[in-house]
Amino acid sequence: MIRLNDISTKAPKGLDKDAIKDETKDIAKRIADLQYKMMAEKKHSILVIFQGMDSSGKDGATKNVFGECGPAGVNVYSFKKPTEEEFAHDFLWRVHKLAPAEGMIQIFNRSHYEDILIQRVHGWIDEEKVNRRIAAINAFEENLVHDNNTTILKFYMHLSKSRQKEKLQERIDVPRKNWKHNANDWKEREHWDKYMECYEDAINRCNAIPWIIAPVDQRWYRNYFIAQKVLETLEKLNPKFPPLSEE
């Protein structure tokens, strides 16, 4: 069983920050090369899920890990509050249509897990519905894996409460970050302990596809850690350019 309190939110000691940042840039280029081959081959797809508290670095990870990739083979979708049309359907309706096609990398900035996190924290759904949704999420993810050759990478952006406070305050103090400020983020922070409880439960029960706990207090290590996992996945898939058709 995963207990988040037992896992560090920081980089291991002794790492050379500048060397890691340089290596991350090299990894991003290798990811781009393999992504291009995967797009051409059209045999596999990858779904990358970034799930975490406000200011945990979902946008930054997307930019730094996939910034070298060609836009034709990578899609990014940020999940917001459901629209009226989406509320009128089952909670996975808006998610399934965004699943990656063969050859594509799809990135979810937040995801279907919001429906067993924020709604659970605020008591908008009862525990019976939570249990049904957890079963549906596990079935949905297994279906993607087995029916469409989709590899799913689920990253929990493991941020400390103290570091979150620093990052939220930056959005007030640093002019170029003012546009990110949202007073509601501070209100949600008041529910930190309940969020951690719900995250930990989701991580342990929605585990048909295991979670990757990414330490994100330091951006340079966050980018390196996630990039390494993505590269390892692509190397295992070992995509190749298809040969010229005999036709």
Notes on the structure:
- The protein is α/β, with parallel strands linked by helices and 247 residues long.
- It has a single domain, classed as P-loop containing nucleotide triphosphate hydrolases (Rossmann fold), CATH 3.40.50.300.
- Helix content is 49%, strand content 13%.
- It is built from ten helices and five strands, in the order αβαβααβααβαααβα.
- Strands 2-3-1-4-5 form a five-stranded parallel beta sheet, with helices on both faces.
- Helix 1 runs parallel beside helix 10 and helix 2 crosses helix 10.
- The longest helix is centred in the N-terminal third of the chain and has 25 residues.
- The mean pLDDT is 96.
List keywords for this structure.
10 helices, Rossmann fold, single chain, 247 residues, 5-stranded parallel sheet, alpha/beta
